[in-house]
Amino acid sequence: MRATAAEAPATPPGGRARPDRRARPDRHARPDQRSGSEPLPRPEPLPRPQELSHPGGLADGIARLRRALRRGARVADPGNPLAVAQLELLSALVENPGNRPGQLAHLLHMRPNTVTTIVNALTAQGMVSRVAADDDRRAIKLTATPAGQNAVRAWQATNAGVLHVALATLPAQQRRALTAAVPALDALARAVDQLADEAAPTRGALPAAQ
Fold first, then answer.
1. Cα dist. 86→123, 140, 155, 163 in Å?
2. In this structure, is residue 209 part of a structural domain?
3. What are the DSSP calls for 51-111, one per residue?
4. How many domains in the chain?
5. Looking at residue 15, what is its pLDDT?
6. What integer is the mean pLDDT of 93-104?
7. Is the pLDDT of residue 148 over 90?
8. Is residue 78 part of a domain?
9. Any idea what DSSP says for residue 5?
10. In terms of residue numbers, what domain contains 149?
């Protein structure tokens, strides 16, 4: 009986084995070059700081949007007697009731004496209440009063109204792009907050990007 290819002897007559010439994977090749696989996509490089800050860059765009919202809110509600810094502190108190002045200073990245000045003004207007802390009667906890909470809600509604009117003037494609970017902007805000929290204890500079 003649042997099939699978049954052929590994060693031919003469006793010397023939070298196996079948293709073997190149151990020095990158993983994306072996076995004919598709190349792995390269990570998109981070934009450089100068690219973010030049006119039309992300940092410049965020700063211009912030200024435009402030101006739009003032035009839409000229009777609002509170400064932006006061409204931001009130908003922080609504989100974190019972915070102490030092905690607010850390949260808002303000100097303690600046927080004290703002709190005194808001207390005089009946928008912030002070109570002694349970664990330390010498310390005080701050809470936004109903008047302070109403001021925050009115400010948020004014900003939302300004955005609504402005969005109505944009093409549908740009509106969809802005809506889709909201999660990324929220993640960016959280990342900036985290960097600030890490640098705050030593008052050092923010760490450089990797």
1. 11, 19, 11, 21
2. no
3. HHHSTTSHHHHHHHHHHHHHHHHHHH-TT----HHHHHHHHHHHHSTT--HHHHHHHHT--
4. 1
5. 56
6. 91
7. yes
8. yes
9. T
10. 57-196
